[in-house]
From TrEMBL:
Keyword Signal: yes
Domain Polysaccharide lyase residues, every copy: 84-306
Listed transmembrane segments: none
Organism of this sequence: Rickenella mellea
Keyword list, A-Z: Signal
Identification of the protein by name: Polysaccharide lyase 14 domain-containing protein
Amino acid sequence: MKTFSTLTNFIALAFLVPITSANVTPLQHRSLKTNLFPSGYTYASGFTTASGVSANGVTPVALSDSVLNVIKATSGLTHNVVSQNGKTAWEAVYPKGSYNPSGTPKGGFGFYLGGSDKFQTAVQGGAKQVIFGYSVMFQKGFQWNMGGKLPGGFGGIGDSAFGCSGGRQTDREECFDLRLMWRSNGKGELYDYLPLTSTNAKALSTVGPETILNSDYGYSVSRGSWTFPAGQWVTVAERIKMSDPHKANGEVQIWINGNSVINVKGLEFRNTTDSVIQGMHFQIFFGGSTSDWASPINQKAWFADVSGAVII
Ligand SMILES: *[C@@H]1O[C@H](CO)[C@@H](O)[C@H](O)[C@H]1NC(C)=O
């Protein structure tokens, strides 16, 4: 009997341990192409700065502010183009003590990005469903502290789309911002600003493992559904499906290294088709708005393989 239960434990361990860790940290890479552009969709008007990725409907472009229509860059911060572990990347520098883009010292970088001309015209012209992608690498031994912001899609009605962050309360139904965050120990989450409706709160609170609805700031959605490792490239893809006006049929899905980790349905983005997807919000800093969020040391992260496509 003892032998049997030991054997059972052994079998349970042998099978359960890999399955559990695969669920918590789904870091198995598929191909870079399907990490950025998950299969099962038809893409159009797309762009990617990744090299060696040839997907139908996607044009390779340079990692350049002018090519990618970068606007509203936070002053006093750099996003230099460097070569890092096989990729051409933007370098984010986090000085010790930096925690918020307006603080001192400043850390990370911030801007909005429309993507290639063709993509920007298509999304801002009202594309219903879009995919965004990038790869991120945190330096080896990265000290996560309490968390920081990572890029994601954004949109809304005209200029009201900008600044859908930082605790914004006014005209919240006119904008949305779907960045990601890392939290303590590199836990990943979707950090969203969506119209503050009860339908959205309900849809977002049902996607485990842990969702915190904080209407003063963004909602922390599905915290810990993956964990970022330091010292290696991790690829993120985010699919945004706009809702029809007055309907709760919007969707947000996140893939990490090609593994779907979050898939929220039943969301309300808008009551008018004047509200559109506008591009990506690159806002990269520690925090949080108080110094306990600050980077504990001088450290860096890199962003590469910036991509987008319309799903048709
Ligand atoms: C859309 O309109 C309905 C009914 O007036 C309202 O309850 C809802 O909050 C609005 N949604 C958005 C996203 O503005």
